[in-house]
């Protein structure tokens, strides 16, 4: 599993996997291979027992590459062939961001649930449309927030919070640098109208984590900024963003996202999470322990009982995927609620839209 390129980072379970269904019991198809996260999404679903039946993308080279990883998939002739396939219960997609809502509406109208890469929604108008179609159809519009659900250290931190290890969460600080790999990025990656901007895109990961860890139902943006410091040839691109949030339960958050991971780092980003509670603190070093270990999933806990370090790769698992499959089958919301999903995107979009543009010509 490579860790140098975040766009193609696709975690594979290192420990025991909880398979929740038999082959053919829960079938899914794939439409849209524009972002490499589709490989991670398919890994998670198939590991938990889902059956991948079909795939479609208009780019034949992308299809050829996908089949080297998932040879069981049959290539469909069109989106419509998959949408009309009565065997399929879920559509997974990493189509380019500006097409995700359009596809999601079509999926839900055909009576299927939808699992889409972040950002699943780009504007507040799109959010209202998604909410309306979810209510109208009763189908799920799930978003792949991989920086929590596909990181064992992040999952373990959530479990410690839920077990009361640090008391009530007061503040969460999230640092999320990413490697740009500029030459390998598609044109849409650099256009805000097509990807939503840096906070709507990778900032949505961080906001979703804050809502989860703090146990908040909602949050408001108290301040946010964006900048294009080093990519003047891409005038509609932002390489830096940050924000401050206040949750409805009084918890606060600071997050920073950027595209400045140094070439010398042995992972696509040194993602860190710092959580302060009334009775302790947690730090998560997600992907690497800089200059100490190439391994990620390092979790540090300090509370009344002492200081602890946990190395949890292969010990926690990616429980989201099995729970999500069962949610689709049983029409429950154990893995993630629709309200939580949409709130994470609402706050991200608001933070992007309200952001102060930092002058970078000074």
Automatic annotation (TrEMBL):
Gene3D superfamilies according to UniProt: Dihydrodipicolinate Reductase, domain 2 (3.30.360.10), NAD(P)-binding Rossmann-like Domain (3.40.50.720)
Domain Gfo/Idh/MocA-like oxidoreductase N-terminal, residue spans: 26-144
InterPro entries documented for this protein: Gfo/Idh/MocA-like_OxRdtase_N, Gfo/Idh/MocA_oxidrdct_glycsds, GFO_IDH_MocA-like_dom, NAD(P)-bd_dom_sf
Pfam families the record matches: GFO_IDH_MocA (PF01408), GFO_IDH_MocA_C3 (PF22725)
Annotated GFO/IDH/MocA-like oxidoreductase domain residues: 157-283
GO molecular function: nucleotide binding; oxidoreductase activity
Keyword list, A-Z: Oxidoreductase
Domain of life: Bacteria
NADP keyword on record: no
Protein name: Oxidoreductase domain protein
Species name: Lachnoclostridium phytofermentans (strain ATCC 700394 / DSM 18823 / ISDg) (Clostridium phytofermentans)
């Amino acid at each position: 599993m490579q860790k140098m390129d975040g766009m193609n980072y696709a975690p594979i379970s290192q420990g025991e996997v909880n398979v929740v269904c038999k082959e053919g019991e829960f079938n899914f198809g794939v439409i849209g291979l524009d972002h490499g996260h589709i490989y991670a999404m398919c890994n998670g679903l198939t590991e938990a027992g889902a059956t991948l039946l079909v795939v479609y993308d208009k780019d034949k080279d992308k299809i050829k590459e996908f089949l080297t990883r998932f040879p069981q998939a049959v290539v469909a002739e069109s989106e419509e062939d998959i949408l009309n396939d009565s065997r399929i219960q879920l559509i997974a997609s990493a189509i380019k961001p500006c097409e995700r809502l359009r596809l999601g509406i079509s999926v839900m109208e055909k009576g299927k649930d939808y699992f889409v890469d972040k950002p699943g929604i780009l504007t507040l108008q799109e959010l209202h449309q998604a909410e309306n179609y979810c209510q109208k159809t009763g189908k799920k519009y799930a978003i792949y927030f991989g920086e929590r659900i596909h990181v064992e250290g992040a999952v373990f931190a959530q479990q410690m919070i839920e077990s009361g290890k640090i008391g009530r969460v007061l503040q969460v600080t999230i640092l999320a640098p990413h490697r740009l790999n500029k030459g390998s990025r598609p044109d849409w990656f650099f256009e805000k109208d097509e990807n939503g901007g840096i906070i709507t895109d990778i900032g949505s990961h961080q906001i979703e984590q804050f809502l989860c860890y703090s146990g908040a139902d909602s949050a408001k943006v108290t301040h946010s900024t964006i900048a294009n410091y080093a990519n003047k040839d891409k005038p509609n691109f932002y390489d830096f963003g940050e924000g401050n949030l206040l949750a409805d339960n009084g918890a606060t958050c600071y997050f920073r996202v950027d595209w400045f991971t140094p070439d010398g780092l042995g992972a696509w980003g040194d993602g860190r999470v710092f959580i302060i509670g009334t009775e302790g603190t947690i730090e998560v070093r997600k992907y690497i322990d800089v200059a100490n270990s190439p391994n990620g999933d390092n979790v540090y806990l300090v509370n009344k009982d002492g200081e602890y370090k946990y190395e949890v790769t292969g010990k926690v698992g990616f429980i989201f995927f099995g729970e999500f499959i069962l949610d689709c089958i049983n029409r429950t919301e154990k893995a993630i609620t629709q309200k939580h999903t949409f709130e994470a995107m609402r706050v991200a979009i608001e933070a992007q839209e309200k952001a102060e543009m930092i002058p970078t010509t000074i």
